[in-house]
Input
Amino acid sequence: QYTPKALSSLSRCAMPAPLPWNAFREYQCQRRVHIGLAPLLPTEFNAGKSYIKFLDIAAMGGVGVYSNRYPYNEIVEHGVDGMLAEDDPNDWRQCMQTLLDNPAQTLAMAKNAAQKAADIGHHQHAFEFWHARTS
Output
């Protein structure tokens, strides 16, 4: 129901329905992904989004392909801990093909993303983030 038509016929493409937070955390702990896609169209609403999809994909062991715009281009280092794609289907396809064709590089990127997510999620990072905004 929530999967775009162009993706719904692909046998290895899954898109979960929206879940309450506790159910999502359980889902996330029980699933692993190799590649996660996080497209973000250039809209006013999306300009206020966070990089939570980066954290979600990393928590599930995967490497992401993200729109090359804020907030992803401020956190993802292309080819190091994820891939950044332009608003061109061919660019998305190329990023995915690169990941599929280079499993060792993809695994390294997934490990780098997991480390970055752990660093970002560390309580000291959160303290410094909020302390900088209240000082």
Observations:
- Strands lie at 35-38, 63-67, 83-85.
